Amino acid sequence: MGIKSETGARPHMWRIMFLVMVVVILFLGLRPKGLGIENNVKWLPARKALEFNKNSIAFMQKFKGFEDINKNGQITIEIMMRAGSVDKNGFNILLMLHGGSDRHQLVLGQWGTSLVVMNGDDYNNRRRLPRIFVKDAFSITKKHLITITSSEKGTKIYIDGMLSGQKKNLQLTVQDKRDQHLLVLGNSIYNKASWIGEIYGLAIYGKAFSKQDMDLNAKGRVFEEQFNSFGRHKPLLLFTFRENQNGLVPDESGKNQPLTIPSRPIVLKKK
Fold first, then answer.
1. Average pLDDT over the chain, rounded to whole?
2. Distance between CA atoms of 153 and 185, rounded to whole angstroms?
3. Looking at residues 222-249, what average pLDDT do you find?
4. In the chain, at which end, N or C, are there fewer CB atoms within 10 A of the end residue's CB?
5. Residue 182 scores a pLDDT above 70
6. How far is CA 110 from the centre of its chain?
7. What pairing do the DSSP bridges indicate for beta strands 42-44 and 106-111?
8. Model-wide pTM > 0.90
C-alpha cells in the first residue's frame, strides 16, 4: 500500500511543478520590460527625504492644483534635492505634471549635471521646442534648492537663490483634463526615465514668485536647510517627508493630497 501511494503521488507532484513553472514564465513574459519586483523608493526619516533608485516612482493622482495653475497662468515649483548620480545616460525625470497629453506635460529632468525644464516630450530636442537648460544644477555631494517660477512674462530658474536661467518666450503650462491630473516624482508615467537621488521637500504654488518671495523662501530653506517654512503665498501642495503613513506621504498644505509610494513600480499610462 505504501508503494502504491508513493507512486500515485508522483504524477500529482509533477503537475504542480509544471503549473508553477507556467505561472512564472507567464509572469516574466507579461510583466512590462525593465520593471523590478519592488519599487526602489525608500523613506529616510533621519534625513526627512525620499531616496529614488532605478525603477523608482512616487505619484499623486488627481492633483487639485491643475485648476489654479491654469486659471492664473502662473506656477512656481520649489524642490530641494541631491542627485545620486551624474553619470546616468539619457534624460531622467525628477518631476512631471501630466494632464493627459505627453505633448503638454510639464517636465523637470536631469541630463548629466544639467537641469532641463520644458513642456512636452521633446527629450532629445529634435523639435527645438522652447526649454531652459541649466548647467551644473545637480551634484552628488550637495543639496540644491531649485526654484522655477513662470507666467506670461516668461520663466526663471533659481538654484540656491541665485538666478541661473531664464527665457522670456517660455510660459510653463499644464493641461487640464478631468481625472487625469498626475504628479509624478522620480520617473515618467511609463516608468522609463527613472531618476536617482534624494528629495527633501517639494512645494507647488499657483502664483509666480517675485524676487522678494523667492529670497524669503530661499533664506529659510537653503541656509537653514528646512523645508517647512514658506512665505506669503499658500502652496497648492507641500511635502516635507517628515512622515510616511504606510506608503502615503501626507500633504502638509492642508488640501489632503497624499503622495503614493506603491510597493511595486507601476506604469501609470500605456502608450
1. 85
2. 27
3. 80
4. N
5. yes
6. 12
7. unpaired
8. no
Which DSSP state fits 104?
A: G
Separation of alpha carbons 104 and 269, rounded Å: 15
Assess contact for 144 and 162: CB atoms under 8 A: no
Query: Quick one: average pLDDT of 230-246?
Result: 85
Question: What does the pLDDT look like over 35-89, one tens digit per residue?
Answer: 557 899 999 999 999 999 988 999 998 888 888 888 889 999 999 999 999 988 8
**Is residue 190 a contact partner of residue 57, using CB atoms and an 8 Å limit?**
no
Q: How far is CA 217 from CA 201, 220, 242, in A?
A: 12, 6, 19
Rounded to whole angstroms, the Cα distance separating 250 from 71 reads 25
Q: Tell me the C-alpha distance between 114 and 138, whole Å.
A: 6
Whether the Cβ atoms of residue 68 and residue 84 lie closer than 8 Å to each other:
no
Residue 207 has pLDDT above 50, yes or no: yes
**What does 195-217 look like in DSSP terms, one character per residue?**
--EEEEEEEEESSPPPHHHHHHH
Residues in the chain: 271
Grid cell, residue 2, equals 505504501
The owner of cell 548647467 is 135
Region 215-220: mean pLDDT is 78
Give how far Cα 50 sits from Cα of 53, 81, 200, 219, 242, Å: 10, 9, 7, 23, 10
Phi then psi dihedrals of residue 188, to 5 deg: -95, 175
For 3-17, the three-class secondary structure string (H helix, E strand, C coil) is: HHHHHHHHHHHHHHH
146 in Cβ contact with 108 (< 8 Å)? yes
